[in-house]
Amino acid sequence: MPVISDDQLGEIYSFAVQLGKDAGKLLMDGAKARFAGTADGSSDIAFAEKDNAVDIVTQTDEAVESFIQQSISSRYPDHKFIGEETYSKGASRDYLIDSTTPTWCVDPLDGTVNYTHLFPTFCVSIAFILDGRPVIGVIYAPFLDQLFSSCEGRGAWLNETQQLPLIRSPIPSIPVKAPSGCIFACEWGKDRRDRPDGNLHRKVESFINMAAEIGGRQGKGGMVHGVRSLGSATMDLAYTAMGSVDVWWEGGCWEWDVAAGIAILKEAGGLVTSANPPEDPSTAEVLDASLGSRLYLAIRPAGPSHSETGRQGQERLVREVWKRVRALDYERPGI
Amino acid sequence: MPVISDDQLGEIYSFAVQLGKDAGKLLMDGAKARFAGTADGSSDIAFAEKDNAVDIVTQTDEAVESFIQQSISSRYPDHKFIGEETYSKGASRDYLIDSTTPTWCVDPLDGTVNYTHLFPTFCVSIAFILDGRPVIGVIYAPFLDQLFSSCEGRGAWLNETQQLPLIRSPIPSIPVKAPSGCIFACEWGKDRRDRPDGNLHRKVESFINMAAEIGGRQGKGGMVHGVRSLGSATMDLAYTAMGSVDVWWEGGCWEWDVAAGIAILKEAGGLVTSANPPEDPSTAEVLDASLGSRLYLAIRPAGPSHSETGRQGQERLVREVWKRVRALDYERPGI
């Protein structure tokens, strides 16, 4: 594996931030063209269906991935590139990130449904991976003009000026009665099959457990402070790094959905482990999630309380979530 | 009732927009003070719990309402003022808006839980009501720097420059297979009682019907394109006016949560009716929601298709939602 100096890493970080800004601008240009009805000449069409937008969105998605891939390959020809669009067209679902090659893992457009409807929480997600670990993350949501970025050892940032988490003097501890008092982010996702005990029903059962009053749901009621769904795994992770979300729980994501978000969240002091509860949630070790595992439970950065360290508080919250959620059924060859 | 000329209405509109910007800035100042840990001197406290934030939030909420109330009463001493904070402290839950007095209906902070956690979708909501009807609406979400505003006859706007809905050349029609293809916004709310057939379970049953595959849920599956929860009724309405949300369905809101949003959505071309399905959803008249009814179903602005007008498409979607949702149990004296 090539040695990358601290100076070189800083240079790659600056490049990645600029790339995120440029790619986000391309996404926003595509959106603005639709405001005016010019993207596909639809201003000439008397009657429009929003479904027509899907082709335009796919074109933008592919164009932005090409732009990112070409920018990277001309600047860093030895680096590997894994992108959502190119990957999706291949037949394999293998995990392609290894520990030998510096690798870029990119989703040109996370929150595709949002982008189709011009719902503001869509973004570009760019991660740089060394030794199998995301060390640089850049997320830019152009409609919201929110840029999240991090580099190992250099902190995590909102718009390059506000260090994450937002509240940091001191960083709040995990509430004593968590998940009560927490913001819980979750997504309904694409698997909507109405099968008994299928993913949709397991998810919803978990959501209700987290939301219901304390004492409800045969003792599983978590009475979270709020349930939020933004339609983007990447934005969920970014908001967890801000400290705005306390818990994000999801299955079915791919590595390009989460690599940059995990880099930013971990650099901010957050924790990412598996969504699926172990046999004994009270005692099992809280391991880092594998990047390609498709099952993620993220906890915001946390400071210490009088009785526990920040990490102890985070692990306590992990266990409280594990006690309330169902295992989800998402597979991955080779993981 | 005093006659208000078009010029006077324009003057009130400008005043309301500036008031929204100023009030939103106060909210953001309160948030930023917490970034630095200075709002309550908490930088001196070694261990912080997020719950401590609640007092600060209440103080800001009350301070912003006072600022708005005083600004209005010094500029328009004859106008009535109904604010969330002052109202909530009273014993009555009566509907206080009448058709004789020009009235301001204000929520200084919608999305209180979001503000507590610094989750970005919080906002100030200001409506001006004539003859019982919201004719001016101003919503400002300072973290996102999104300002929504409208005045009857003058259009609805994002940040004063982008007319709503965002896509308007032409405005998309309602999808043929709606609610399939739609973004559905809904909130879990505060009533988390785990009672059989209580509001929580009726809501979740409705959410699942809207989300499940076509053919699922004994034919009720709506296969919406996405389910979103932002934790603010006001922001849900604003995003519906943008066209980013197709359907918002909710019970339990109060008039200050929705008055400005309804003004903006209707001026953009949207429709607001009751959340609760009538006896025959297929044939019942689609009536405008009463402002104080606490039950709302909002549909985005829609253009015509080859086979129906925009309004016909909206009513079709209303009926498709009514067929899939449960009636919610929220009461209101005098409505």
TrEMBL record, chains A, B:
EC number: 3.1.3.25
InterPro entries tied to this protein: IMPase (IPR033942), Inositol_monoP_metal-BS (IPR020583), Inositol_monophosphatase-like (IPR000760), Inositol_monophosphatase_CS (IPR020550)
Name assigned to this protein: Inositol-1-monophosphatase
Pathway where it operates: Polyol metabolism; myo-inositol biosynthesis; myo-inositol from D-glucose 6-phosphate: step 2/2
Family: Belongs to the inositol monophosphatase superfamily.
PROSITE patterns given in the database record: IMP_1, IMP_2
Annotated organism of origin: Phialemonium thermophilum
Cofactor(s), names only, from the UniProt record: Mg(2+)
Keywords recorded for this protein, A-Z: Hydrolase, Magnesium, Metal-binding
Catalyzed reaction equations: a myo-inositol phosphate + H2O = myo-inositol + phosphate
Signal peptide limits: none
Pfam families (UniProt xref): Inositol_P
